[in-house]
Amino acid sequence: LHITGLIFGGVGMVGTLAATAMPQWRVSAYVDGNIVVFETIWEGLWMDCISQLGIRLQCKFYDSVLALPPPLEAFRALMCVAVALAIAAFLLAIVGVKYTQQRGKDGPQAVSIFILAAGVAFLLTGSLVLIPVSWTGAGVVRDFYDPQVPVPLKRELGAALYVGWASAALLLAAGAIYCHCWC
Length: 183
Hints:
It comes from Leptocoma aspasia. The chain is an alpha+beta fold. Helix content is 61%, strand content 13%.
């Protein structure tokens, strides 16, 4: 179980880092019957990108932190904290697994406190990832079906959201495994 939790936590940590860096949080939607599409727009936490005919990709970082909407600033902060906490949880899990294997000859009660700390940190990290990813996903779906939003401004769920949901699930599973091992 410890090794499985370590694998889940490691993959969840890498996924959290990838979801934070990816610009595909919101992707342009093609709602009308127009099948000729020249541009694809990606919106992320750090930059916007425009792909023209799938050949040329231009990305631009946001100019000013002060000009960003407050939810985007909060999502950035939550994801950065989640990345740092995921790395700390992974390191705690490595130490805990190593300590438990060394002390394993003392009996089944020799589970280290590092295992519990890693489990709690993984659970907290999974929750931190889930908040901005789910909030963004809910906003995209709400705006997509809102008739007041103009068609060019409608967006679809981007790949980064799916990576974030999968990472959150893996992190929560790793946390549950380590907390179960502690009990």
